[in-house]
Amino acid sequence: MLGKLIARRLALALLTIVLATVLVFVALQALPGNLATQILGKDATPDAVAQLTAQLHLDRPGWLRYLTWLGGAVHGDFGTSLATGDCVVSMAGDYLRNTAVLAGITIVVGITLAVILGVVAGLTRDRLPDVLISGVALIAMSVPEFTLATLLVLVFAVKLAWFPAVVTDGPDASLRTILHNVPLPAAALSIVMAAYIVRMMRTSVIDVMASEYVAMATLRGLPRRRVLLHHALPNALLPALNVIAINIAWLVGGVVVVEAVFNYPGIGTLMLDAVHNRDVPVLQYIAVIGALVYVVSNLLADLAATALNPRLRTPARAS
Amino acid sequence: MDATPSNAHEPAPSVGPESIPSSIPAFSQRVSRGISRRTMLFGGAGLAVAPWILAACGSSSSAASSTSSSSSSTVGGATTSATGSTAVTTGAAGTTKSGGTLRIARPPASTVETLDPASSLSAYEYLGALYNRLVKQDASGTVAPDLAASWSVSTDQMTWTFVLREGVAFHNGKAFTSADAVYTLQHILDAKTKSPQAGVLSPFLDSSGITAKDAKTLVVKLKSPNAEFVSLLMNYNCYVIPVGSAATIGASGIGTGPFSLVSFKAAGKGTVKANPNYFGGAPKVDSIEFTAIADVQARVNALLAQQVDLVAQTNLDYATAKTVTASSTATTATVKNAAWYVMPMLYSAKPFTDLKVRQAFKMAYDPQEVIDLSIHGLGTIANNNPVPPTDPNYLDYSVPHDPDKAKSLLASAGFSGSQQLYTSSYEPVMSILAQAYQSSVKGSGLDISIQTASADSYYTDVWIKKPFCVSYWYTGRPVDQLLNQIFRTGSSYNESLWADSSFDAILDSARKEADAAKRKQYYQDAQKILVDSSASIVPFFADRIIGLSKKVVNYKEFGFEFDYVNIGFGA
Amino acid sequence: MSGITTGSPGDTAKGDAPRGSGTLRSLLGSPIAMTGVILVLLHVVMAVAAPWLAPYSPIATSPLDAIVNPSSSHWLGTDQLGRDVLSRVIYGGRNAMLISVVAAVLSVGIGTALGMAAAYFRGWFDEILMRILDAVLSVPAILALLVVVSVLGAGAPVIVLAATVVYCPAVIRVIRAGAQSVVGLDYVTAARARGENPWATMVREILPNVLDVVLVEFAMRASWIVLLVSSLSFLGFGANPPTPDWGLMVSESRSLLTVTPWAAVGPIIALATLIVGLNLAADGLAKARGIDRITGGA
After folding, report:
1. Shortest Cα–Cα distance, A97 to chain B (Å)
2. Do C251 and B431 touch (CB under 8 A)?
3. ipTM (interface pTM)
4. Which pLDDT does position C153 carry in this prediction?
5. B569 near B285, Cβ under 8 Å?
6. Distance from CA of A177 to the nearest CA of C (A)
7. pTM more than 0.80
8. Percent helix / strand / coil, chain A, rounded to 5
9. Closest to A147 (Cβ–Cβ): which among C5, C142, C268?
10. H-type helices in A30-87, by residue range?
11. Which residue of A lies nearest to C286 if distances are taken between CA atoms?
């Protein structure tokens, strides 16, 4: 049963990714201007445009070009960048690594922070700690993220000089350099991300603590600490899992802003470059990565939910 | 030319929308940069801009100007008219202590940058450190010897002879000879190079006309007379590379300049180290480290956080400049009249087909009010003349602001009174200028509505497409190049599509004229026509503000590069 | 394993929520919701009464008064063109609120219709819609935004469209989840059995049951759209200058943050208080009506 469920989920996940690439492909076709004209510039002769059009296979119907691309992608060949002529996969490698470092730290820090604060807020409902935590979370989600990032730079880099303000190295910087530069961008992202999860956690803790189940455990005389950690927390995490998954997927796009503010050489930076270069193969690759992260994090959240709550192991829930 | 041209669109690269800092913002800026680059790049003509060039490039030199022409031979410095802009920067001067690493933040030209100076994708900031040109612009704005020790021109303005400097070696130890100079010019003209400067030179120069008379003499025979030819070699695409290096120069960076290449990565980090054997004397600093930072605000933050010592190619807007000066670690330097702002009125589109409407639009605004609002007076009123007042050929002529006359002109032209004006966040001053103009012409019965277009496609979809928009160019083109490239009928950078055959004829006469005084008269006649009837509103020249660490001394900028030899840290 | 059946955040509304009639009452009864509503109302009043409240014209330039710090004549100082920041902040809400209301109505309206339809029809319609939504949601929103804006250019209609594209899919999923718990109930089954027009059934039987969710979604999406509009204004895709608009103002004055902070901080505070108000209203309402709010980051 579980195996079948997982197989179905995997098939759906694959379908989602393929559909996403179709959508992106169609949307990119709608970008203004003939790609060949874009590349050659406004003074290009009609001959040159025609030649490049043929060379890029732009004269073929869209569906054929898409299938050609898909055929390559299945084999791990995502084509070459229009801007640099490099293989997309190897070119994006460094950027991906850097974003993975940033996102990984953000996820660990953000989620830990959010869960702790959410539980504290939930347990002290409507008392001072809750009011403070909820208030700060509300404000954190009400201020545009670039404002937050800028503020961090002004205070911790310019005024206090504790951390670098921007990353001065390129995508191929050593891991050490990247780690040295990661604190401020990770802080900015963690705060934004935690703000959403804290609110969810808090509600969910309040719900769980009010449930019969916890009341029963308490009545059975279990220590409060044990009730919290072993009974309440797993159940409280359950509803928060999807929110966490959504936030992880959000990171793929959310890093764009923060990476720009810090000149962080990650996937967001690559995306901005690709958009301005109309570099379709790179954008397609990023879309695939984004879809993959979205699908996988949702899948993991569902699996975790299933593990936490066996009652959910019924195919009816799957969608 | 002292200056190199800079171009309009390019601007973005250097300047960036300051504001954008935000999230997405960065994006727009970057986008814009990309496009422009691309335009230039592939598009042809070029004007790429070299950023620092901007200002510096131009020169003021009056001195220089004249001489040359007349008969053959002039030596050394002077010749041709200088270009106009100004150079000059203010920055701390003082004793430099030797040594240290200068850290420069710069915007990447693109992810496929190259060190080939002829390319439109060259990483500008490296060029002046690695290479030399045949002639350069000196601090006073004059055309000065660099690798060419002296030069002369035949009386028909057709044959130019350059005597090259002795005892110069490339970084790889090879001696510099006329073969390298011939190769460099031919490389620029080669269609495969796609050099922006090819579009400027090719109308009167073929590869076959470039020859080496002997190891130290270069002879250039033009197809048609051009008394201004030598000034065109000051362009930043004209850095000299070793013979036969076309395929490798993009990565090797081997030149004759004050620094030699240690490492370079497109859109990434790079280092150059001092060349102790430089013919102009050893540089004060040991090395320069270049960092590519795309977002303008990020570049400024790097400066404020002392991660870099100098922000290259970045025009700080007034507000950012205030922020920088208010900090304890950084300060600003100013390049006078570095860019000129323009609102082209499309000659082919209504209502601007009517001369009366164009004149009314020029008279309708108060130049003082517009310059004050837009750039806080940090610049010079242009009076609709794109030639900077510092250019020796400058004509001091203007049609005064006159709201009543503007009103009556518009009435007699049957103009409705409202007009849409396009702008974008491509560059910080553009939108402010649009708002200042809108505000200033209200008194003349003109109702301007502002439309913000995507910075991304501004120079492809709006510029030369929409009837009325805001744009800008870096100052620094020699007057000959400025007028021919941007105002001549049919030129690809004629952004207003204005066409005036009498104006074109005057430019032709100037190129043939050997006598500098008469040539100047031609250029002044041309300027009068521009002020009276062109389709370009040119409200002002704006100063460029550069951010640098308080520790940096002797920052001087002219002729497209700063003074790499003397810049250093305070003792 | 008790308690937690309430569904994961993706599947909101509890099936036993009463019909929508009591919405107003529960709103009034919740102090949190009231605080939010009052904040939002203050902003509405400020926007409507702007001509009487603002001390200066929001677009009057004055070269001599540019970039001054707060004083008795300019409470929040002036910006680069010498315009009064307070007046611009007061007028600035008009643009933000108009766009966010229109976009929120559109995305929640379309989302509600499609969400209910998916729950009602189930089967292949639901399946296909969900797959498409998943695909749309899996594309990073910022990429979608950049494409919409690149294709269509700037302007209020484009922003409304972009916001709708970005938020509609999430709304569909939420409403669908809410409606699913109603579709199985007796009276809906009965209506279906009677062969009633599906849309009539949805409007009559299902909509009242998900109305609370719809309202919560509306308040929440509206707050996000305000944020989105401000981000787009930064990009230069928002309001055209010299329109007073918070996002545009922050972007124009951002570099002045350390010199005359109020030119940027003023609009940020206005922006944040409106968003906080909308969120509190949504929170209070959700709490009063027993709805788990989902707060994703989309």
Report:
1. 17
2. no
3. 0.76
4. 63
5. yes
6. 27
7. no
8. 80, 0, 20
9. C268
10. 35-40, 46-55, 62-74
11. A203
